[in-house]
């Protein structure tokens, strides 16, 4: 009887520890259960003002604001990636044919990871037609290789991560003057359930 009696509090302690462990996972559980919402221009505007608010003057922050005319309708989450691109860019074939500049792309797609970039490249086959896509991320591809490719070849769509795109722009390897569309992969979450905009480096 004493042995049974002694084992009871230990069981309670174990169950208490398990309960504590479960509580720690609640944030990700909430994120998992919360339904994704379509992005709106205000989301990006708020993010920019939060990021630059501390070290910019009021006038500089005003200059950072983009008018609503700069934004296309966001994916209302009923579209696949290809069908969304077809909706926002109905004259893609004409744009693709008229693009002749090297070191530039007509459409730039930004994602949070290399794997996600590859996923999006595969899913846009119905849209892209006879055009060249360049991978702009760091995984298995050196920056020098990408610089050479951009200098020698002509590409229509660039899909990559913000870090690598920024590095290429800073080194004048990627010119954004002829870029007509910039797509942000806003709602996709990684294994830690972070969106691209939740990653501090971004």
UniProtKB/TrEMBL annotation:
Residues 1-38 are annotated as: Disordered. One of its GO terms (cellular component) is nucleus. It holds the Pfam family CMS1. This is CMS1 protein. It comes from Loxia leucoptera. The gene is Cmss1.
């Amino acid at each position: 009887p004493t042995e049974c009696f002694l084992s009871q509090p230990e069981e309670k302690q174990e169950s208490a520890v398990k309960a504590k462990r479960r509580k720690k996972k609640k944030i990700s559980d909430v994120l998992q259960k919360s339904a994704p919402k379509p992005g709106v221009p205000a989301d990006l505007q708020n993010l920019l003002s939060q990021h630059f608010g501390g070290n910019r003057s009021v006038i500089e922050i005003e200059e950072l604001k983009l008018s609503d005319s700069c934004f296309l309708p966001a994916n209302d989450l009923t579209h696949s990636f290809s069908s969304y691109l077809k909706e926002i860019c109905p004259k893609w074939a004409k744009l693709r044919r008229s693009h002749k500049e090297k070191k530039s792309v007509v459409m730039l797609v930004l994602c949070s990871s290399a794997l996600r970039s590859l996923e999006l490249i595969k899913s846009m086959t119905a849209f892209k037609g006879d055009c060249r896509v360049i991978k702009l991320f760091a995984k298995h591809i050196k920056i020098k290789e990408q610089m050479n490719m951009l200098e020698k070849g002509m590409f229509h769509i660039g899909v990559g991560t913000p870090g690598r795109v920024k590095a290429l722009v800073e080194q004048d390897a990627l010119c954004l003057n002829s870029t007509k569309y910039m797509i942000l992969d806003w709602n996709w979450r990684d294994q830690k359930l972070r969106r691209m905009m939740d990653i501090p480096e971004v």
